Structures are given as structure tokens and as C-alpha cells.
Amino acid sequence: MTNIYQLNQLCFAYANKQALSLENLQIEEGKITALIGANGSGKSTLLNILAFLASPSQGEILFRNQSVNKRDLIQYRRRVGFLAQKPFMLAGSAYDNIDFALKIHNQLQRPEKILKVLKQLDISHCIHQQAKLLSGGELQKVALARILVLAPEVLLLDEPFSYLDQSSAQALELFLQSYTRKTGKTLIFSTHDRLQGFALADHVVALADGMEVMTPLINVFHGEIKQHQFHSGSLCIQLPEAISKGRHASINPQDIVLSTTALESSMRNHFLGRVIMIAEEMGVVRVNVDTGVIFKVLITYQALDELKIKLGEQVWVNFKSNSVVVF
Ligand SMILES: Nc1ncnc2c1ncn2[C@@H]1O[C@H](COP(=O)(O)OP(=O)(O)OP(=O)(O)O)[C@@H](O)[C@H]1O
């Protein structure tokens, strides 16, 4: 395993406001990393730092084991491709914008290169359209094409799916997954959709208030601990004995086992509910179960096939007390 980024004791503040404070964060080369977290949790700030557009107030960034000096940011910036949440387009067509990117990066301005990338992203029809008149989704894809054509070492994408309809988002997910596999490039993207983050990424970095939190931030319940149990309204979750403090409990959707009958097992948490959603997501299946509170679960196709569950049917949600993260 090689780390392309290593961040040590990194802090970033806007004026007096601390926006990021990360102890140690490694990003593995050739893998897909998702940054998840609520609005304002620091995802864009972190992407800006990884794109060398901002310099941390404190701490160190290593890129391919080299400590990045503030003086060299421009050099590093050219090695990565950053897609902003609201990309900026120059006057001219989609083609002109991509062609110009090649020019300023001193790369060969070859039409076939541009045509290929537009085709890969399914936006060949936008080629002669004025970039400033593109729809939100088209603009994001043209901006992505403008990055891909440069073949940077790292792709940093800030909410790349936010303007896309469901089928375009799924097509882009598939494209990004196969692109990173084929090229061995590193992809880091931010998303509000935590389950999408889990489904698409090899690693997930969860942020809350600018800090990394060791929870998937899915199936998060708020409440209090009493006698090794976490109480949240009608929900009572069994915890390991060692946990005595915390106001939030979360359960990784991949740690939940579904069963159609009550399980006799070492798992201490069992809730009977009803299936309210089954959806496909990048080779896994999302199942939402309403037990009074909604549990989000990720299972394999094989598990779905074996369980034979359908919408509206009863199902048990089971998980170990050790799978519960309290914070
Ligand atoms: N230019 C800025 N000046 C001052 N504060 C800022 C600036 N940009 C971001 N912030 C603050 O820094 C914190 C982190 O913001 P950031 O945009 O990184 O979060 P985010 O997780 O990307 O949010 P979102 O999901 O809404 O895009 C927030 O509290 C935000 O208000």
C-alpha cells in the first residue's frame, strides 16, 4: 500500500474560524476515497488543500512522500485535477474550454483527444455549445472532461454528482470506477450521500466539524447511555460493557445482518421491521428497514437472492454490540 497523500497535524482556519483539524490522514494511491459529512463539515476545504489551492495554517502535507512547501504549490497544482462544486467556464464552446486547458498545460491540442473524453462522459452533443449556457449537469461533466483530458495523477471532485439525475449519476459512478481501475489513478470525491460514498469508494473519510470521525455517519441515533445500553426514543441498543460515554450511536450499514427469522447468534441487537426500500448501488444492494426508526443496510446480491425479501415484507435487523460506534 502506497500513500499518495499524508497529512500530519493539519489545521486550516478562515480568518478566525477553524474549519479543519486533522491529526493524521493518509490517502492511498490508486484507490477511491470518499469524503462524507454534513454541510460545513470541511469537505471542500480539505479538497482545496489536497488540490494545493489553499495552504494549511498549521501542519504538514506529504505528496508522494515529499513534504509540500508553500512556495511550490503551483507546481503541485498542475499534477492534480480539481473539479469545483461550481466550475468556472471561459467564454467559448465546451470544445474551446477543453482545448484551452490542453494549451495552458503545454499538452498537444488534439481534437481526437477531446472527442474521446466527451464521448466517455456521454456529452458529445455539447461539443459546440457555449460553455456558459450548459445545464448544471452538462457543465459539471464538461468541467470533468477538461480535467480528464490532462490525465492528472489525482482526481479531486467536489460533489460531482450533485447536479446529475439518477441515471447520469449512476453512469458517472460506473465510469469513474472503471477509469480508476484501468488507469490506476487516485480519485478523491466529496458527497452528501453517505451510502453512495460507501458503495463507490475503497475508503471513506467521515468529517464532522472539521475533524475526522470514526463513524460511517449512517444510522446515527442520538440519545444517552444507561447501564450499557444506548437509549434513543423507542430504540434501545446493547453496547459493549467498556462504553460508558457518548451522545450518538452509529452502525455501519455493512455490519448489519438481515434475516427473515429471529437469529440465534452472538449478536445482541435484533429489531423487527419492514422493508421500505430496495435499490441497486454499484454492485451492492441498499435496503432500508423501518423498525420504528429506519436502518440503512448494504447487502450483496447473493444475500438478497438468499433472503428473497420484497418491499413491505418483515425482516430482522441484527448487529453485534461491538459494531456500534458511540461518539
Ligand atoms: N471562504 C470562507 N470564508 C469563511 N468561512 C468559510 C469559507 N469557506 C468555508 N467556510 C466555513 O468553513 C467550514 C467548512 O466549510 P466547507 O465548505 O469546507 O464544508 P463542506 O463540508 O464542503 O460543506 P458543503 O457540503 O456545504 O459544501 C464551514 O463552517 C464554512 O462556513
Automatic annotation (TrEMBL):
Entry GO CC: membrane
Alphabetic keyword roster: ATP-binding, Molybdenum, Nucleotide-binding, Transport
Domain ABC transporter, chain residue ranges per copy: 5-234
GO molecular function terms noted in the UniProt entry: ATP binding; ATP hydrolysis activity
PROSITE patterns assigned: ABC_TRANSPORTER_1, ABC_TRANSPORTER_2, MOP
Every Mop domain range: 264-327
Superkingdom in the source lineage: Bacteria
GO terms classed as biological process: molybdate ion transport; transmembrane transport
Name of the protein this chain belongs to: ABC transporter permease
Species: Methyloprofundus sedimenti
